[in-house]
Amino acid sequence: MLIFSQFYEQREWCAEQGLQAAILQMKTGEGKSIVIAMMAIYTVKHLGKRVHVLENNEGLLERDYRTNAPSYERFDIVSDFGADGLKNGDAKVVYCLKKQAAYD
Fold first, then answer.
1. pLDDT confidence tier of residue 102, bands split at 50, 70 and 90
2. In what order do the strands lie in the sheet with 79-81?
3. SS3 annotation, the chain
4. What's the pLDDT at 103?
5. pLDDT surpassing 60 at residue 70
6. Which of 7, 34, 61, 94 is the most buried (most CB within 10 A)?
7. Is the separation of the CB atoms in 18 and 62 below 8 Å?
8. Looking at residue 30, what DSSP letter applies?
9. CA distances (Å), 68 to each of 21, 60, 64, 65, in order?
């Protein structure tokens, strides 16, 4: 989470250095789901952007949404789930399958 926030906060310097992306790798069981939730909260609250959390596995997607929805509520962030959630203009964090997401 700290790497992500620093990369974003220093985006102009990173661009000058030719850095366009930050890629982080975590092993199974190291907390990817909670890091994603923290990044979503940061992105909504600090950057004012909407977040789509994409997953291929429907079971993991639903599990992660149910686990993290209370955290979003604590930060007064409306979250939603699935293809219908993408249409919910009030939802700032939407968990959906990759095949449901619309790409610009």
1. low
2. 51-55, 93-97, 79-81
3. CHHHHHHHHCHHHHHHCCCCCCCCCCCCCCCHHHHHHHHHHHHHHCCCCCEEEEECCHHHHHHHHHHHHHHHHHCCCCEEEHHHHHHCCCCCEEEEEHHHCCCC
4. 54
5. yes
6. 94
7. no
8. S
9. 26, 12, 6, 5
